[in-house]
Amino acid sequence: MDGLNGSVVSEFVLLGLSGSWETKVILMITFSLLYIGIILGNFFVVFLIIVDSHLHSSMYFLLANLSFNDIGVSSTTVPRMITDLLKEHKVISFQSCMTQTCFIHTMGGVEMVLLIAMAFDRYVAICKPLHYLTIMKPRTCVLLIVISWVTGVIHAMTQFSFVINLPFCGPNKIDSFCCDFPRIIQLACSDAAKFEFVVAANSGVITIGTFFLLLLSYVFILVTVWKRSSGDLSKALGTLSAHITVVVLFFTPCIFIYMWTFPTSSVDKYMFIVDFAITPALNPLIYTLRNKDIKIAMQRLNKKFHYDRFC
Description:
The protein is mainly alpha-helical. Helix content is 75%, strand content 3%. The protein is built from ten helices and three strands; from the N terminus they run E-H-H-E-H-H-H-E-H-H-H-H-H. The protein has helices at 21-51, 58-84, 94-127, 132-135, 138-163, 181-186, 193-228, 233-259, 267-289, 292-310; strands spanning 11-14, 91-93, 173-174. Strands 2-1-3 form a three-stranded mixed beta sheet. Helix 8 (233-259) packs antiparallel against helix 9. The radius of gyration is 21 Å and the shape is globular.
C-alpha cells in the first residue's frame, strides 16, 4: 500500500527509547504513572472549575481549556510510547504518522494561543481591573478559544501541505518515539532544504517569538504594578508565578526542538518527553499548589464531600 502522496514508503519505523529490557520496563511503569497523573490531574482541574461557581471566571475558563488541551497533547503520543517500549519492531503507518503529526502541531498551536490569552487576561485583571468584566466577558473568552483552534489547525495544515507532497522512497527509520515534521522531512528522497526552512520558520520562529512576547508581557505587567505601588509587586508576582512557570516549561523544549532543527543528536527526543509527558503532568500541580482560589475551591469541595457523606 502506497503513502498518501504515492511514495514507495508505506510505514515508518520508530526507534523509540533504547535500553535493556529492565530499563524499558521501568520506563513503561514511569510513563504509565505519568500518564495516569496527566489524565486525573487535568480532569480534576476541569471538574473543579465546572462544579465550583466561584471559579466561573475568564481566567479559569481558559485554564480549563488548557487542561483539556494538555490531555489531548499527551494522549496523542504517550500511550503509543508506553506500548512501543516493549515491542521489538515499532511500526507506524504513513497515514497514522501524518495524522499524529497534525494532531501534535494543532494542539501545540492551540496551547500557544491559550497561553497568550491567559497572559492577556492577567494583564486586564491587574492593569485594568475596572474594565475587566467588560473586556473579558464570556463572548470574548469563547472567541479566544475559537481563535486558538483555528490558529492551531492553520499552523498544522501549513506544514502538512508541504510535507505530504514529498517523495519517500528509501529510509523509513525515525529516531524518536513519535512522528514530527522535522524527522519526517529528513527521510524524503529530495532536496528538502526549502521544506526545512518552512518548518524552522513556521514552528521555530513562531515558538521563540511567542515565548519572548509572553515573557515581555509579564515583565510589563510587573513593572506597571511596581510603578503604582511597590507593595503590590509581591502579590502580583505571586499571582503570575504559576503562569510564568507553565510558559517556561512548555516553550523551552519547543525552542530546542524547532529552533535547532534537524540535530545530529537525539536530544530533541528527550525534549519531546518533557513537552508531552512531564509538563502536562506538572501543570495541574503548579496551578493547584500555587493558586489561592484553586486551593480554597479544593477545601470547599472536600467539606461538601464530607458533609454529603455524613448527612
